[in-house]
Amino acid sequence: xxxxxxxxxxxxxxxxxxxxxxxxxxxxxxxxxxxxxxxxxxxxxxxxxxxxxxxxxxxxxxxxxxxxxxxxxxxxxxxxxxxxxxxxxxxxxxxxxxxxxxxxxxxxxxxxxxxxxxxxxxxxxxxxxxxxxxxxxxxxxxxxxxxxxxxxxxxxxxxxxxxxxxxxxxxxxxxxxxxxxxxxxxxxxxxxxxxxxxxxxxxxxxxxxxxxxxxxxx
Length: 218
Known about the structure:
This protein has helices spanning about 5-25, 35-40, 45-50, 55-65, 70-80, 85-100, 105-110, 115, 120-130, 140-145, 150-160, 170-190, 200-215. By secondary structure, it is mostly helical. The protein folds into two domains: about 5-50, Homeodomain-like (Arc Repressor Mutant, subunit A, Orthogonal Bundle), CATH 1.10.10; about 65-215. The longest helix is centred in the first third of the chain and has 24 residues, at about 5-25. The termini are far apart.
């Protein structure tokens, strides 16, 4: 049976999200206000607060559209993978490619204040817009629905340990080093401090992560 209330909620949230994205594209993130979004969507500010906790909540949801390409293309990257470690590298390759090519949005989702102040926001978003998650392997859903990037990566490393490809005692160190490598390259891309292509940035990140893993391989 169709849940009319859920459909109405999705429709209304979409109006506000689309309005917020339009303002972001035209004026930048700093141009987004509750009043502007409500006016553009054709509703009043009070109505907006029926669907979003605050302006941060709305901006976060508006930014989530930039994860859609990553999520929908992830299964393509994972075709033919032979084990969890192979999946780990392919997931990093996919994530690096899309995050480097849309660094401002990924910065907001995973590294700004929203990543800590809006608990379970990614999970909430996909519950409302499940089609943007695509057709994912069940084993990857715990990673994809978690907002904290450290927890996301650690869940993948635990799968490698479960297959005997890494030792449990090394996972936290590998997790930290992999993320330090990624964040270093990500920040360089974000600040336009690289003089090579995004493809090269992805290749270098993967190379360094693989070298880190190799030093811990059983």
